[in-house]
Design brief:
Elements lengths: L2 H11 L3 E8 L2 H8 L1 H18 L5 E6 L2 E7 L3 H17 L1 E2 L6 E2 L2 E7 L6 H17 L5 E3 L5
Parallel strand pairs: 6-7
Antiparallel strand pairs: 1-3, 1-6, 2-3, 4-5
């Protein structure tokens, strides 16, 4: 992932960015019920949706397992929720036709904007914590940092 490059540009030039942690909801269910091949297709649907939402100058990467990280550059807290909601809506509206009924995929998203006091670890941990909060509040939702930047 290119997170360190974005972080270095922020430190050097002040280029702000949003960081999103995205977790596929009920991913184990897809793997257990339909097999790992379908689980892989679920990951591809989410990845392709993320790529389609973000600009070429942004970045998307798989963090591990069923988690992704997305970076949207030169953004602030007014666009933080808008981008997160767009990602969530487009994933939810994409379907995987692997059985008699289309499989609906949802994600839980935590989003934050880089702060002057951030380290790589602090922004990662904040976005991850917000994503975990989205999971705890019922999945299929976006939780963004409310602090002004």
């Amino acid at each position: 992932m290119q997170l360190d490059k974005f972080f270095n540009k922020f430190q050097r030039y002040g280029n702000t960015f949003c960081l999103y942690f995205i977790d596929v909801d009920k991913f184990k269910y897809f793997n257990d019920k339909y097999g790992h091949d379908v689980g892989d297709k679920v990951l591809k649907v989410v990845a392709n949706t993320l790529i389609s939402v973000l600009r070429r100058s942004d970045a998307v990467g798989r963090w591990g397992g069923d988690e992704f990280v997305a970076i949207a550059i030169k953004q602030d807290n007014t666009t933080l929720r808008t981008i997160g909601e767009r990602i969530n809506t487009l994933v939810k509206n994409s379907h995987l036709n692997e059985s008699e009924t289309p499989l609906n995929v949802t994600v839980s998203i935590g989003g934050t904007v880089i702060r002057k006091t951030d380290t790589l670890d602090s922004i990662i941990n904040r976005a991850d914590s917000l994503m975990l909060q989205a999971k705890k509040e019922g999945e299929d939702r976006v939780i963004v940092d409310q602090q002004k930047f």
